[in-house]
Design goal:
This protein is mainly alpha-helical and about 170 residues long. About 80% of the residues lie in helices and about 0% in strands. It has helices at about 5-10, 15-30, 40-65, 70-75, 80-100, 105-125, 130-150, 155-165. It is globular, with a radius of gyration of 17 Å.
């Protein structure tokens, strides 16, 4: 497989987004001096992939062959297999999150998850007041930072500046 083909799949499957999420979480964890569980480092990229894939599947389904976006075309063309994989990965994230993460991390993850579902619903329904890119950035940042923020031993006065700078 040549470099161009690898880059194509890297892009349409949002691997670049996943790497960015892990790098950002590593930055947050390092900045806040936290030691996140292995489960966090496995579930975060999986959850990010599920969310982005779901969004691309919905956009691809809405636009069908008319989309100019390669990700949407790819997700529409491969919608059945990607839907099954995305669904299975979502179930895996949910079950493993409950089994391996602290209770309060799961609660916050479920709250963020509820907002993600609202985001996807508003995007699908094309609600006029909904600003999709802003919503994505807030949810992405919240999903990355909530674990390290909840796990840090630093006090509020020490964490507000890095959090504000990142947000």
């Amino acid at each position: 497989m040549n470099f161009k083909r690898i880059f194509y799949y890297w892009n349409v499957l949002s691997i670049d987004i996943i790497c960015g999420a892990v790098a950002s979480a590593w930055f947050a964890s390092s900045t806040l001096n936290t030691n996140m569980k292995t489960a966090f480092w496995l579930l975060l990229p999986t959850a990010v992939w599920v969310i982005y894939s779901s969004d691309h599947l919905i956009d691809g389904w809405k636009l069908k062959e008319k989309s100019a976006n390669q990700r949407h075309k790819f997700h529409y063309k491969n919608r059945i297999s990607l839907s099954v994989i995305t669904g299975l990965m979502a179930i895996l994230c949910f079950v493993c999150g409950i089994l391996f993460l602290r209770e309060w991390v799961v609660v916050v993850a479920l709250i963020i998850g509820a907002f993600v579902i609202l985001h996807v619903l508003f995007s699908y329904l094309q609600v006029s007041f909904f600003w999709k890119e802003c919503s994505v950035s807030v949810l992405y940042t919240a999903g990355i930072w909530f674990g390290p923020i909840l796990s840090t031993t630093k006090n509020r006065s020490e964490i507000w500046l890095p959090c504000c700078l990142f947000f």
